[in-house]
Amino acid sequence: MATLDEVYRKFGETSEAAQLLETELGTILLTIRGAEEELFFGDKPDLAKEILTKIDKSTLGRLLKQLGNKIDSKEQLEDLFSEALKQRNRLAHSFYRQHNFKRNTDEGRDIMIQDLGTIHDVLIEAYKAALLISGIDIEKMINA
Fold this sequence. Notes:
144 residues
């Protein structure tokens, strides 16, 4: 039987996974925009700061829209990223409202932990996919 502290901890871990995904997608977008605007070899600090500020203020949904067709594997990942966005939004905006008083019973907390596990799995899979876009195969690194 899960405790309320375990539910809160799992919620935090799941929120972290969402932020890791957002950060990685932001890094990808910054790399792409930096190349497009020749920021790596030029002297355009104001433009670089403007691009970074816009990325930093972007939600997961906005980041995905900004990436648009800028990544080669976008079509293959569209369903995964769409589901990750849906789950992240549910986590941030309605998870506790949806589960309501389940937090007050052992069985309810177990259901909440299971739901958080499902959300976490989706977000981590999307994060791993984003890492692959960046050329990082985390699975290979873990299993090495």
